[in-house]
Amino acid sequence: MNEELKNSVLKSGTSILGIVCKDGIVMAGDRRATAGNLVMSKDTQKVVKVNDYLVTSGTGMASDIDMLQKIIRAELKLKHLRSKTRPTIKEAANLIAMIAYKNIRQFSSIPFIAGTLVAGLNENGEYELYTVEPAGTVSKVEDYDANFSSGMPFILGLLERQYKKDLTVKEGVNLAIEALKSSTQRDIGSGNAIDVLTITKQGIQHVIKQKIEADFK
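Request: output the structure for the sequence above.
Response:
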């Protein structure tokens, strides 16, 4: 892919993260989308409620992330209708991984590039968080992850020091906000606004939707 084409592709450089808590899961992300060194969108929501039990967030090419979310929503609904049982979070993560693995190995002038965090609540009441790297490897997350987002070094650096195993969802939300503040202050691919979603037995809730305002004095 030549440099001109590369710089014209809309990307989510981004900061995304998932935190496993003792009473649920916290998913968070910023809203900036870029093309090369330009900010193309200040309002691209990257943490998305796919259905009543699943949340995904992505980093990479915006079109790939958007298409993955549409496909996973449709495929999970079809599987539910056919089998009469609700797919598990692990099955959803593996479906995304299969799509990523297949697409990245097909020749294209614009290769598939999307990393995904997948989180949700199984029918047995078990919370799960998975990370799917752009080439299709699936890993279950036991504590926290930021996939391959451009804000990952700043996010993981903070979480490495402040995360604890018995974290509550309320504490996880506050920690996610601090992690996003760290990345949006230093990563040029992240910023403009943040979203934080929680997954608990009460369902999926969009608890934080906040713009990052510049303060000029």
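The chain has one domain: 3-209.
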